[in-house]
Design a protein that fits this description.
Length: 291
């Protein structure tokens, strides 16, 4: 067996296990919260380690940054579930951000401003988007009270991202000629991106059809599902490119090695880091115009 064949087998096994864990994690609200709290922690830990190792004169407080990001996820989850009400649950996170900024006054780092910038980038780029998965998962009624857990909506974000990636790979391999963004990601083509986008939107339409032809229609109708698919395709592609830009800036090929054959946590969740916030904005926009 050649090395290439071995790598393909490892990549396939890792991919199947990854998808299985992700799907299983959405079957239950508590499992989803635990899974994404772990994902948030691992991704922030990986990001902080990359920055500390690759960016000169920058030394992020890895532990505090990771704990702060995980707490943000838990706080948003508890608020979404109505376990806690009001802004008080966010106070520890606000204090953490204040601490991370003030500590630079005393740390005597050679490049304090860059240190603060990279620290806050981790919170904005990783912690905030992953925390917003709770907004997709836990619905509220007209009075703003918790009304139930929706497994389908957050899971579909990842299904559509996977469909987009799969379609883009297949169409790009067969028809790809025109580079999408050669400065950042030389392997991506317009043909692949368009093909992947069409495939993902079709999958969104299929999900919307079955979601609205059961005993109880979903909160999104078929056309709104198609719109969600388009939003996820566009912002998922941008999310992939943003992570590629980050890796090129600090000079690494993969963000890590935690997932054999697939790289690191940032490599696996790069598309979702922009797709999740975009999906939340899309859903709130629909809500506003439907009232």
């Amino acid at each position: 067996m050649t090395e290439k064949q071995k790598n393909l087998i490892v990549r396939t096994i890792t991919g199947v296990l990854f998808v299985a864990i992700m799907v299983a994690g959405f079957l239950n609200a508590s499992a989803m919260m635990l899974l994404f709290a772990i994902i948030t922690g691992l991704t922030l830990w990986e990001y902080s380690g990359l920055v500390n190792d690759r960016v000169a004169n920058v030394n992020i407080n890895r532990f505090i940054s990771t704990v702060g990001g995980v707490y943000l996820f838990i706080a948003v989850a508890l608020w979404s579930l109505d376990v806690v009400r009001g802004f008080a649950v966010m106070m520890p996170y606000v204090l953490t951000i204040i601490y991370l900024l003030i500590s630079e006054l005393y740390a005597k780092n050679r490049d304090a401003v860059n240190n603060m910038a990279y620290t806050m980038l981790g919170q904005m780029y990783i912690a905030m988007p992953l925390a917003l998965i709770n907004v997709l998962a836990f619905h509220r009624d007209a009075n703003g009270d918790f009304s139930g857990y929706d497994m389908l909506l957050p899971l579909s974000v990842f299904i559509l991202l996977w469909a987009n990636d799969t379609g883009a790979y297949c169409f790009g391999s067969l028809f790809g000629k025109h580079k999408l963004f050669p400065r950042i990601s030389p392997g991506k083509t317009w043909e692949g991106s368009i093909g992947g986008g069409i495939f993902a939107v079709v999958i969104a339409g299929v999900i919307g059809y079955f979601a609205n032809n059961g005993a109880e229609p979903h909160s999104l109708n078929e056309w709104q599902w198609l719109g969600l698919g388009a939003v996820i395709v566009i912002f998922g592609t941008w999310g992939d490119l943003v992570e590629s830009l980050f890796k090129r800036t600090i000079g690494v090929k993969d963000s890590g090695k935690i997932l054999p054959g697939h790289g690191g946590m940032m490599d696996r969740f790069d598309s979702s880091l922009l797709a999740i916030p975009a999906a939340v904005i899309y859903l709130y926009t629909i809500t506003i115009f439907m009232q």
